[in-house]
Amino acid sequence: MAKRKRKKPVTGGKKTGESLKDVLSLYAKVADLKREMAQTEEGGERAVDRLTDLEVHVNLLARLLTTLCLEKLGIRADALKRLVRRVEKEALRDSQIMELESLYKLSNGNPKKASPSRSKPRDDPWEQIS
Length: 130
Prior knowledge:
Number of helices: 3
Strand content: under 5%
Distance between the termini: 119 Å
Order of helices and strands: HHH
């Protein structure tokens, strides 16, 4: 009969203490993340409420402006519709221009390129006029 070797009991020394600290630190990090998520959710709810309030105000102002144009300024309804369409097209065009400008600014952020100097050329016709 072969003798079996007895396994030594595992002592709870450093390894157990370190793993307990690791677990506790993970729980603390999870609790911090839960708090941050709750704060973010609360901020999102406030933003939605503000957006709803702004939509109500814009609708009221649009109605007021329409009423003023029709009744007090004497603008006809079809002329007002054409004016609104023109303003919408201009606003769309302006927003597209602003978007393109912001994209250009983002792509133009290379500091290695030296900007050309803005000195006047020698044969500048404006110098002769003045």
